[in-house]
Every structure is written in C-alpha cells, then in structure tokens.
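Sample entry (666 residues):
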Amino acid sequence: MFKKILIANRGEIACRVIKSAQKMGIKTVAVYSDADKNALHVEMADEAVHIGPPPAAESYIVIDKIMDAIRQTGAEAVHPGYGFLSENKLFAQALEKEGVAFIGPPAGAIEAMGDKITSKKLAAEAGVTTVPGYMGLIADADEAVKISNEIGYPVMIKASAGGGGKGMRIAWNDEEAREGFQLSKSEAASSFGDDRIFIEKFITQPRHIEIQVLGDQHGNCIYLNERECSIQRRQQKVIEEAPSPFLDEETRQAMGAQSVALSKAVDYCSAGTVEFIVDGDRNFYFLEMNTRLQVEHPVTELITGIDLVEQMIRIADGEKLSIEQKDIGINGWAMESRLYAEDPYRGFLPSIGRLTRYRPPAEVATKDMVVRNDTGVFEGGEISMFYDPMIAKLCSWGKDRASAIEVMRSALDGFELEGIGHNLPFLSAVMDHERFISGNITTAFIEEEYPDGFAGVELDEDTLHRLAALAAHMKQISAERDASISGALPNHKRRIAPEWVVMLGNNPYPVSIAHTDTGSTVTFDCGKTLDVQTDWTMGQPLVKAVVGGKELVVKSNGARGGSLMRYRGADLKMIVLTPRRAELAAMMPEKVAADTSKMLLCPMPGLIVNMNVEVGDEVQEGQALCTIEAMKMENVLRAEKKGVVSKINAATGDSLAVDEIILEFE
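Predicted structure, serialized as tokens:
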C-alpha cells in the first residue's frame, strides 16, 4: 500500500480524501495557493506545498507545479478530487511518466469519457441509450441556430469538456440559441481551456439520476445503485439523495447494467459516475460519464457502507475489488444539502467574506440516524472569489426517506453560519416543501416552485405564535438581567412588568408572560396560551426550546433596532416592546429607500469580463449591459428598462464589490 499520497485539490474534497488516507495509515500532502495558506486542508495534511497565486489557472491546474510538489515530497500517488485536474488526461499521463500512481482511471478512459461528444458515440456503440443531438463540432452561432432547429427546441447547449453546470445553457428559440452558444463557448474556454460545444435535445419533465460505478484493474466492475440529483439551479446540483424515490428495481438494474457495460467498453477502473436523464415514463438516456469522484458521493457511501475514496486508493494500488454485485444493497435513505456561499434573497448571487460564525451541527452516527458534514472551512476563515462557492456538504441518513428528511431538517436548524450570504434558508425551505416531500420532482423544480426567486417562507399562524412566545420569553430573561444589574431587581424578588408586544415582521402579538417552575407561560390577547421551556442564555445565537410541547430550534442574531429570527427558511425581524413603546413605534414614519433606478449596481463581488455599452448608447429592456465573472461563473447583467447610458464607472478587468455603481442612465 502507498505510504504517502498528494491531494491535487483544495477545500472540502481535499479534507475528505485526507480523512480516508489517515484512516488507512497513509501520509498526506496538501497543495495550496496564496489564498489557501491558512485553509483547513493545509492544516489537516502531514505536509503542504505552496503552488502559486490564487487563480486556479496559475496554481491548482498548472501540471508542472503539481509535479514539482510531488518530487519535493516523494508522494507515491495522487488523488485529484473533483474539478481542476481530475479529468485531465495530460495530468494522468504526466504522473504515469513520472512513475507516480494516479488515483483515478487510465488516461484513455479519461480521454474517451471526458469528452462529451466522443463519450456519446462510444455509449451508443456499447448499447447505452443516448439523447438525440448533434455531436460534431459547431463552427459558430449561426450553425448552432441551424442545428437547434433541426433537432427541435428546446435544446441543451453544452461544453464538450464541461462539468458542474459550467458552459451549459438551455435554449427555447433562435435568439437564446445564439446567445447560449456564445456564453457556453466563453465559459468553456475560461473554465476548461476547451471551447468545443455540442447540442442535444432537452428532455422535458426530466429527472437527473446517476449510477455510481466501481471498477478495478483486473476487469471487475460493479454499480453501487443510483443517486437522484434533480434539485438543481442553473444545472448546478443543490440537493441529492440516494436512492431515487422514482426508480423501480427493474429500471435500476437496467441503468446499472448499461453503466457497467460502458465502463468495461473503455477499460474503466476506479470510481466513476454514469449520468442519465430520465423522463416521466422511466425512459432513461445517457448524458455523460464523470471519470472521477462525484461531489455527491457521500449519499452512496451512507446507503452502502462503502468508503469510495478508500476503494479508489486500493484500486490504484492494484488490489482487486473485495466486493461483488450481489453484495451491494440499499440500507436506508440518505440526503445531501450543498451549502453554498450565495445569497438566495439576491437571486443566489455569490457572496464572499469572512465566516464570523461557523458552527455546523455535531456529526453523529447511530443505528437510527447519521449526520455528516464534509467541509473545508472554519470559523474566521475567508470565502474567496477565486473558487467554487461551496462551503460544506451536509448529509443525513435515516431508515427511510421521511426519516432522512427529518434528520436533515434538524441538522439545518442547528447549523450556525454568519458573515456571508448563504443558502441555508433555501435548503430548509426545500426540505419542508410539499412537492419535495412527495418525491414528485424534476430538474425544473426550483424554476417552477420559485419562478420569481426565493423571498423566504411564509410561516403558518401556529408557528408564528410559537416564535412570538419564545421571543417574549427571551425578552423577559433579558429585561430581568438588565434590571438585576442596575439594582432595580435585587435578588430577583421583584419582577419586570409582564406585558409585551412582540413584533414579528409587521405582525404585532400583544402578550402577557408568567413564570413557571420550568420556564414561563405566554398568553396572547386572543386567549391562546403556550408554555416555553429553554436553557437559553443571553448571547447565544442558537436557541433551543420546547414551545407548546413542540421542539423549536431558532437562530436569533442582532439586527438594527431588534433581532433577526431565522427559522425553516423564514427570516423575521423581531422586536419586543412595552405596550407604550409599541404605540409610539406605530406612529414612526417608514424610512424610504434611496432611488437607484437610474443606476446599474454590481449585484455580487466579481470581475468585469465584458462591457457591452458605451456612453450615449440607447439600450432596450433586456439588453445585455455587461458580464461579471464570479466564482467561475459568468453572469450577464441586463437593462431592466429602456434608457440612455450617461456615465460608465467601471471597465473590463475591474474587480468590483457588491452594490458598486457600474454605470448610470439619464
């Protein structure tokens, strides 16, 4: 077995690989850029080598720099994680030439399956069902439009070397096909160094379901069931689960058999994933094969009990698979929520900055439940604009799907994260969504259920009463502490006036509160009463309580003029006032927001890669104004209405912060 391996990656996947290597008694080497000198994966590894500036193109994907790190440390093998060099045949060949093992498939399999055009041709030859499309090279946007018409709209425009939603667009008409081709080509060139594009039919009402395969160097290959990855935004997976709530055993076996056949056709060894699109009648079509470890591999590990990273290392060392197809079962259900540094209240735009608070829920593993958190960050660390916005992958396991969802809900409730915009509220909202709970999902779930973006969850009246009761109890604790410090409440014998008005958003809840042996009883003016028990003390942002006999976990953080209560996808401004102060507050005028209607503000921290207009240009509604690149994605900013450009404050190449003024209109 290898004595030392190098991980040619960063973040949570580097930490994940290090954990398995340590369990196997293998020394590890981390590589890092200037931006990652204090990163968690650097701290966890036995050794670390600096490889260059923050941009990946100058560090993590420079083969020569990784090879230098291997020579410096004497690493015998390299695990590439996912992304970066994980599917780069030149890297695999360079390792082979150096006599260093690649913990992944052979270069030939990477070349065959890493190119989406070639892989579809090989899949068809291997008897795998494929989606109708055009696999040849496309010269320009005009040809892209012509091909799209021949296939029939809607079509999917994809980068041949793409992955992770990069270089991918859906087009429903000629205009979208033309623009989608140009954007996909540009993203593909900047992300993968390969701007080849292909077009295929876009299947309506689709599910994204993938099969995990595992093959050794001795011709053995098995499949480890499927993962449902249909909850996506802009083709980027957000929530995954295993198994799929949609597949039956017959379809599972058929998809697994085709996946194994394709793997054997290219002499595949190591862990890999064959991705399919599945329609409402369970017809399935090959999309691509990812010749690497997938981001969502933990859910497969949780239902099979197989450590995929360990298997990859053993296979790279020449071992035969110790498991056969008959050994693979499905034990329970697993969920994965991808926690991203993106603000759902601002159209999921990327967010960067310092993690002022990062307290994930405790990882647990019992016979009834599992909570697992794969992460590469820590409290006080920085989220950089140079890399993928993923913060963590929170995973849950239960005996069935309902149990796995409930475990995930509780884990999300207890996840404390402050300092940046993040999608925790959105993840909680999905877990409580009736359609998701039913399993009736497609890749259009987010688009269909949140067509105008995510604006938070509207809580029912029963939940609002429970939150108001908890807020009143917390206020009473705070008021009594203040009075005790000032001397107005010596020895806690005198009590604060028991009447309060709880403002949750714009909703007032007049209450009275009485102490009990275990907490307090809150009575609303409508006559409803709720008992509150909690061991919360002032300063704790996570409030765990029992209100009205039901458990309640709420995040409560200071906000201007009050606090922010966060619960299950809802953010509520919370202020607790005396009745008199509530009367006076109702008379205060509302603050009017500044008029920015004649400005284009930068919606995210990023780099301007293209400015489409000049001073004096008359623009129409929907016209592209400029393109911002942030966290490896290009975002086109468009005019919201007709106008004339009067001033341009930024230029191509400028790095901007959120809300900086890019240009102004007359």
